[in-house]
Amino acid sequence: MSRYITTPIYYVNDRPHIGHVYTTTLCDVYSRAMRQHGDVFFLTGTDEHGIKVEQSAKERGLSPQALADENAAEFQSVMNTFNLSNDEFIRTTDPEHMSQVQSFVSTLLDQGDIYLGTFEGWYDEGQEEYHTETSAKEHKYISPISGKPLVRASEKNYYFKLSAYQEKIEDLFKAQPSFVMPESRRNEVLGRLKEGLQDVPISRTNFTWGIPMPDDPNHVIYVWIDALFNYITALGLGNQESDRFKARGHYWPATYHVVGKEILWFHAVIWPAILMALNLKLPACIYAHSFWISGGKKMSKSLGNFVDLQMIESIVDKYGMDAWRYFIVTQGPLGATDADFTEERFHEIYNAHLVNTVGNCCSRVTAMIEKYLDGDVPRCKYPIRESPNAPASTKLCNQSNSAVDAWLPHMKKFEIAQASELAMGLIRDVDVFINDTEPFILAKDENKREELKSILYQCLETLRIASNLLLPLMPERMSTFLGAIYPQDPQDPTHEIAVKTSLNMPGWGECYLGKTQSLTKIALFPRID
Ligand code: MSP
């Protein structure tokens, strides 16, 4: 089974910030998790055309391409810094993208799905987007994004016949109830659909930085249409002879297009209509998350509460990359409500979840193995259940198995925080088990040695399972832990399965733990004051 997940492609006239990093990290966690169950193609990239890029470039005395190159490079370097495992980084100035967009648009022109007409309406200059009369009125003729007045504009343009797709889009929403998630976002789209679909202008003549309309170079293709096509041009769907198509064509349709709530309409209505017009399959789900706000307010440059790259880097320097990833993914606005970012909250979660739960339990168990068993990890197939001296409890084993079983369905549904909570729950179970069985007391009694070994084995084995479940979120620290408890000797027959830290991982009690050298206490998350 192959899966395809995408982020929006980010405007190069903006600097990367928490919003971009957030969406991309969510997709990264999903990709890492699902790669254990099949083939995944994870796409992100940059949206490089449009009037804003042209203007910003002019202000800086650069060509639009030079500005795009500079900022695309910054976005690309962010992907590396944040351990984001995207398979491709698409840029809309890539000639392979541009020629495919032109070919799709030609097909739509030939079919009559795109036509030349005149349009008048309320235009948001910052967003390069027209509002319907209802939406303009609702926002009091002010842009909800920039706060600047909407302007009355008219232009001769090419239009996409969106109105012809009203019924088909409604049918789509009926036939595919999870086409838009979460449900409340779906309801918003359904509400707006009732207002009726109007044709959308898909070309511009007031600037030149864009993909020329086929056979009419006075018009450039509207940046939003150009951008939406990235999801299929990256797979080569517009050039079936290309190597890209041969290698990647099978990934279509997308499993998830993950987007922020502000750009849902384009993805949930305009994009499927274009795909229908082109006779292409539709994505399985558009997942629209909410927004990070900061200190209780919408992030804004003028308020100075922007969680920008510099601020993120200072947090990462202090707490580590995995702590950052864990925080944004588990505490972020994945559902229908916005999430507030504050450093205090970050610190609280870091302490409660990573220092006091994950870190503490891992170091507690490994320290006991070091101290009481000279670091000699009780070996797998250790007959816990059969051992006459072992405690009869199979509690941790059962808890682990049910966490593993529940984890995948959550991940598949993009319920990443719930999936990770299963792992945290398991770690808390280990703590409870230690308190109940008191290995620190058993250690004083030579006759209780087998029991002690069994208890510590069960704890470590459960931590192995939990850290596998947390691996997609915290690839660095969890691999450090797994690397330390698995055999390190490539000659060891269990090494192969051991390093395959996956959910096809060996089940509870099925693999050897312990290195050839002895295990010592492992500290994963330092306490930070
Ligand atoms: N270029 C378009 C998308 C085209 S996709 C075919 C665009 N780019 S953007 O640079 O503005 O990025 C928007 C995306 O960044 C949002 O959809 C969201 O994924 C992310 N975020 C931007 N600000 C955000 C927050 N404050 N919080 C969370 N994510 C938000 O729109």
Describe this structure in words.
- By secondary structure, the protein is an alpha/beta fold.
- Helix content is 48%, strand content 15%.
- The chain has helices spanning 18-34, 51-59, 64-81, 95-111, 133-138, 166-175, 183-194, 223-228, 230-233, 243-248, 264-277, 309-319, 321-331, 343-373, 395-412, 416-437, 439-442, 449-470, 475-485, 495-499, and strands at 2-11, 39-47, 88-91, 114-124, 129-131, 151-160, 180-181, 200-201, 203-204, 212-213, 216-221, 256-260, 285-289, 292-294, 339-341.
- Strands 3-2-1-12-13-7 form a 6-stranded parallel β-sheet, with helices on both faces. Strands 5-4-6-8 form a 4-stranded antiparallel β-sheet.
- Helix 14 crosses helix 16 (416-437) and helix 16 packs antiparallel against helix 18 (449-470).
- The longest helix is centred in the C-terminal third of the chain and has 31 residues, at 343-373.
- Mean pLDDT is 91; it is low at 380-388.
- Bound molecules: 5'-O-[(L-methionyl)-sulphamoyl]adenosine.
- 5'-O-[(L-methionyl)-sulphamoyl]adenosine is lined by residues 8-11, 14, 19-20, 22-23, 47, 227-228, 230, 259-260, 263, 291-292, 299.
What would you say about this model in short?
By secondary structure, the protein is α/β, with parallel strands linked by helices. Helix content is 48%, strand content 15%.
